[in-house]
Amino acid sequence: MVAKPLLEVKGLKKYFDVKGGVFGRKVGEVKAVDDVSFTVMEGEILGIVGESGCGKSTTGKSILRLIEPTDGEVTFDGQNIASLKSEQLRKIRRDMQIIFQDPYASLNPRHTVEKIISEPLLIHGMKHAAERKKRVRELLEIVGLNAYHASRYPHQFSGGQRQRIGIARALANHPKLIICDEPVSALDVSVQSQILNLMEELRDAFQLTYIFIAHDLSVVKHISDRVAVMYLGRMAELADKDVLYADPKHPYTKALLSAVPIPDPDEKKEAIILEGDIPSPANPPTGCAFHTRCPVAMSVCKEVRPTFKMVDQDHYVACHLYE
How far apart are CA 39 and CA 52, in angstroms? Predict the structure, then answer.
């Protein structure tokens, strides 16, 4: 059976106003996400990588409308999310959840674990307290915690345990899509592997679909089916993970992958050092956003923005080298 698209993102943009002067008038805008398009199939894990500030997290939050997008279409399970009213959006939210980066900041320190996990159950219609209590205990067991942990508070747990609580909360209403916003970046390496393995097990057990946002390329390769590379609010490359890591097309992707450490001390790899700093998203370069740091930039790169298109089998690149 061929998997069908669960999520389709077309031309997604999110611009933040920059205000200044005595009257706080708009003097510019930060182009955090600038015309991003991709599709996520049912049951797959799409990894999104890039340097800090490239718009990964804003993309994820804009898809869920936790941040209102400036423009673009987001179609989830056949419904255009951008056009939904608040009540319709609340109903569809049970199918779309998020796991946040900081497991401590995303959990209310004044609530017990039971209240934290049962809140989405109550919002989406589980009125009986006994049912909610039973479901909370089930969820805690599923994510590798004990039922008696339900009466504790977030500060009584380690970082890895807190992230398990966040995962349990995301799973509460049997979602179809979970956006994972750097869910392991705040954790120790040993704990990271446990959380990643847990997420893979949950994907198989509950037929979940993930968008996995991270800046650690090794983590993304471990968990993802396909990988998208972002730079300055734009998509640079998108391909199957094995293809992308073996044969990167975009100069930015090549530079990123050259920085990944190799565990074999005898194997040598030449690192591609990028010159200069990342341009400001409030004043992005004309043409290709990467041309100011690209080692193979041509004159056309400074003037014309490259189109994000397929250059090989399911391999998409935005680069004039492949025009």
Answer: 23
Residue 194 has φ and ψ, to the nearest 5°, of -65, -45
The 8-class DSSP code of residue 99 comes to E
In which residue ranges of the chain is CATH 3.40.50.300 found? 5-95+176-271+312-318
Cβ atoms within 10 Å, residue 247 = 12
Options 3.30.2350.10, 1.20.1050.10, 3.30.200.20, 3.40.50.300; CATH of 5-95+176-271+312-318: 3.40.50.300
pLDDT of residue 2: 55
φ/ψ bin of 101: left (φ > 0), alpha (ψ from -120 to 50), beta (otherwise): alpha
Q: Report how far residue 90's alpha carbon sits from residue 249's, in angstroms, rounded to the nearest whole number.
A: 40
pLDDT < 50 stretches in the chain: 1
Buried b (16+ CB within 10 A) or exposed e, 64-101: bbebebbebebbbbeeebbebeeeebeebbbbbbbbbb
Which contacts of 25-34 are long-range, i.e. CB under 8 A and separated by 24 or more positions? 28/282, 28/283, 29/282, 30/280, 30/281, 30/282, 31/232, 31/233, 31/281, 31/282, 31/284, 32/58, 32/233, 32/281, 33/58, 33/59, 33/62, 33/69, 33/233, 34/232, 34/233, 34/234, 34/281, 34/284
pLDDT recorded at residue 53: 86
What DSSP string runs through 185-206?
TTS-HHHHHHHHHHHHHHHHHH
Q: 224: which 2 tokens?
A: 């993802």
Long-range contacts, 62-65 (Cβ 8 Å, 24+) = 62/12, 62/14, 62/33, 63/7, 63/9, 63/12, 63/96, 63/179, 63/211, 64/93, 64/96, 64/98, 64/179, 65/89
> Distance between alpha carbon 108 and the CA centroid of its chain, in Å?
22
Give the pLDDT confidence score for residue 1 in this predicted structure: 47
